[in-house]
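Run folding on both entries below.
>entry_1
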Amino acid sequence: MIRVEHVTVEGEGRKILDDVSFQVKSGETKVVLGPSGAGKSSLLKIILGLWKPTAGAVFIDGMEITHLSERALNPIRRRTAMVFQGNALFDSLTVAENVGYFLQEHSTMSAAEIYERVEDCLQFVNLPDTMNLLPEEISGGMKKRVAIARAIAFHPEIILYDEPTTGLDPINAKTITELIIKLKQERHATSIIVTHILRDAFAVGDSLAVMDNGNIVFDGSPEELLACELPFIQNFLSEIREEARLILHEQR
């Protein structure tokens, strides 16, 4: 579904991404881990076509998208949704208007069809009674769920998440990870999740890639990550190793 091949991005006199390669199979949830500044969010911008790499290529379903024009990228972007770290909701619009915004702007659906789709998306994230509320009237965890509802309004095949649980309390974070799993199970979404929160990564990831200084230093299954003996990985996992084992045991 998604293939990144030897992508390098240079900026401000340094390599933000350095010869990065990985792939995500259809229906898979890939988690990209690493400390702040490792280059994780830059990968999402490359996959969305917001940035052009200095070298390398990105393929979606076998089609190279790296050098496509904005117009040629539009059909690809309609298949792809992004859940931003800061939610990116419009403060002056209601929850329903936020969820339906891009449908109104970029679809031929009627007002009634959009209303029905918005209802369906908010029901999916368990927020059916928030349609007429403003973002300032709901909690941080609810805002994240609204952002997910908006992301799935186009029924995307690919969903990209940038730090989806950062800043949330454990209960709300668990709700978001459960939604990510639900989207995979019920809508067969192919997902890439960028995070530095190890608990969430082990809870949702089919495969995990670990980045450091713009490089991917590990790419494999959660079990393989736990068994990895690289010093950087050992240090990275030091505080969560036993909890990660319990999470994987419960899932299996």
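>entry_2
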Amino acid sequence: MRASDRAYSTLRSEIVEWMLPPGTVLGEVEQAERLGVSRTPLREALSRLVADGLVAPQAGRGLVVTDISIDNIRELFEVRRALEEQAARLAAERADRALFATLEEEFHAAPALLTGDDPKRRDYYDLVARFDDAIDASVANPYLVTALRSLRTHLVRIRRLSRDDAERLRAAASEHLLIVHAIRLGDPDLAAHATHVHLHHALTSALASARGVLRPAEAERIAP
């Protein structure tokens, strides 16, 4: 792996996992030394992160990890609804039914993965990632898939706000099961509706979780 790719992968992971929280200054000298790369590949990595919207220049501070605000969350979900509901419709029309039958069985068993054991939770997150991959493969539209993957980078950061909410994870597993079931049946309207319901609950949860971690000035802007 090239040095710039390695630096990009590490920094991206640290940002979406909140190891580098919003507002963190990414100084070239410090980050190059920490990651064990020269400044040229580090600059390439930072440029890619700027293009991703995860890093931005800030007057007097250099490059910093971008902030997450209530407005950001709502805006992302507006785009998410448009993309994911359409993707669910297309998947219901074009998907490999056998693949989604297998996923349906796995989501039926998902509650057992959410019992508080961290390794099992990782298995659940892997299941959700495979669900996303199955949707991407099914829509057969590279432009839509590119947009979805770009959006997910930011959604992962938001999702980390409520990652330890076991009750929400169990509810989300049930919601995913309904989406998978609708796609397996080949019902576009049901698939889109199930996706809409899931995203409504996901947004409500994200906004509630944000109250506890965002700065007071941001939290005050949350609608009751």
